[in-house]
Every structure is written in C-alpha cells, then in structure tokens.
Amino acid sequence: MTIEQDSVKGNDPDKAVISASLTGALTTRDQCEAIPYTPEEIAEDAAAARENGAAIAHIHARTDNGSPTFDEETYQEIYDEVRARTDILINFSTGALHEPVDTRVKYVEGVRPDIAALNMGSMNYAKYSESRDDFVFDMVFENPFNEIREFLQAMNGSGVKPELECFDTGHIGNIRPFVESGDLEHPINFSLVMGVLGGIPPTVENLAHQVRQLPDSANWQVIGISREQWQLVAAALAMGGNVRVGLEDNFYLPNGEMSTNPELVAKAAEMTRNVGREPATPEEAADIMEIDADHF
Fold it and tell me: The dihedral of CA 242, 245, 248, 254: what is its sign?
C-alpha cells in the first residue's frame, strides 16, 4: 500500500523527473575537466544524460574557451545539436550578473527552449573558503520584480515554461504579485536551490520547510549545491520530489570521486529506483509538468 504524502504536491509519486545541469556559468575545466563547453560537447552530454535517466538538460551557453555567453546564435546551435541527438527537454538559464535583460530575453524568444530558468529574487551570492578564511567570490545577485515580470511575459509569449529558481523562502512568496497579475498560472514549476551562501542552508529540515510553502499543485525539484547535494537528493526522492544533478552544482559522487554529467545522472537514477520510483522519460516529464513540447 502506498501512503500518500502531502510533500508530493503536483509531482508524480511514482515517477521522478531528473534534470542534468550540464555546464553552469562559473565552473571551469581547471576545476573539473569533464565540463562541456562547445555546443557539440553539451549535446553529447545531454544525450548521454538522457540515456542514463535524465528528462531535462539545464544549460548555460559557453564560448569554446569556456567563458559564459548570451549570444542567441550560440544558444540556437546548442538547441539544434541537442535536438539532433535526443528528445530530452531543453532548459536554458536566464541568470546573469551585469547582463542586460533584453540580451537574455532575446535568446528565449528566438530559440524557444521547452523551459527557461528564472531567478525569483535578489540576494547576496557568495562562496567562502574556511581553509583560506576568505571569500572565493562575493557578489550581489540582482533580480528585481520588474525584470522577473519581463522574463515571465517573454516566456509566456514564446510558449516557454518558466522554472522558478528559489534560493530562500522569501523567493517562493515572490510569486504572489505575478499570480495575481496573470503572469504566472498554476501549476507552477519550482526549483528549491539550497547551499549557496546567501541563501537557505542545505538541510533536510529546511527542504521540508520550503516544500510546505509551495502551492498544492506545484511541481518541485531540489537543487543541492556541492557535496551536500546527495543527502538532499535522497530526501527529495523520498518526499515525492524531483531532483537536479550535474557538474554545474556538484562535481562528486557520494563516495567523493570526481565525476561526469552522465555518471551523476546514473547515480540519481539508481537512488530513484532505491525508493521505489522510476526516472521519468522526457515525454512523461512534459506531461507531469504540463509543458507543451512538440518534438515527441
């Protein structure tokens, strides 16, 4: 007998949607040599992640030397290379520091990925090294309400599903004006990002608290940053949640071994089956999350 859990919300209790965060914007090959840079490398990782159980590929575009880029042609090339290899759902990041909104809106409207990530609030964004007793980086990540609205309207007008990245409880509450204005409609897709210094700490208690704040119809996944990721993945899967893994968020398997995107997805798929669930296919994920994907 399956016991119903309130924490499932709008997710499928039997199918877990696994996202693969392939690149990120800050990670480099000096840190992990398996990070893909070129459209072809990104597409190959997306296809391998799909084979290992991922339904969604979350992508930040890079230049061939690894620098972040917001060029529409590069995003289009990534989209075409991925779609030529696999049916995985394509999710483009819109997050950036000091990059104009219209530059980021342009590739969302022009390329029209299945999903686009949207940061739901401003925050301090930092990484602190205890061994150095200093910050590795320390910045303010600005995401004001007027920019959030601009992104939502662009996504809605382009048939792109918003994925709301929430780094703290207040970011979840920030949906209210957009629901009231009609810029957001239920069911809403939430990503609960945990472990960034400046956001909510990565504990299971905090994950449960975050999930309690969500609307009943919400789809949600956890994004655990760094090595605390695996405890959060385990908790989310047991709660009926979806999960994201990949080199943007964490380089390591639970045993501490440096890994690759396909290997991280394979571990998440194994953990999914260990709690009696199955990884969702891209088509199943589109149905669960009410994404109008036309490539199946």
Answer: positive
